[in-house]
Amino acid sequence: MPVIAPMPAARPARLPNQRDGADEAVAAGTTVDHLTETYRAHYRSLLGLAALLLDDTASCEDVVQEAFIRVHSARKRVRDPEKTLAYLRQTVVNLSRSALRRRILGLKLLSKPMPDMASAEEGAYEQLERDSLIQAMKGLQRRQREVLVLRYFADMTEAQVAETLGISLGSVKAYGSRGIAALRLAMEAPA
Description:
Elements: H1 32-53, H2 57-73, H3 84-109, H4 120-138, H5 142-153, H6 158-165, H7 169-188
């Protein structure tokens, strides 16, 4: 349980609507003793309130502690000591909302985890495959190569390829299937 140190006694403040000569009523606010009693009596219930709003115990405890610290700092503004508990409850709710907002924002800002890096051998093997594919592509007929590049590397539909090359859709299909067959043969052949 934290210890709430008493503040040095301050001069009594005058209410703004008081006139000179009227009874000098003092706005004392919530006292440290009253706040300490409220802490002892209601800490667990406030912790339960925070637990309903948050999901982990550490955050709940932090929120309730922060609420008491804020009320302690602003105890002069809580003029009616009977409203101290209500002020604490509202502070716990607001701090819980803020904690959830920060958590959600943190999850949004977290970068996606990096995929496992390939080993140097895998990278070299992929480079060899890429080089052999490029060599096999160079061995294709011009139209076969154009169709395969536009269809699979430029990610165009067959209709788009036909329009781009100015040939019929049937020709695109024929060049594409013949080009893939020729690539398979070239890639399977020993180097």
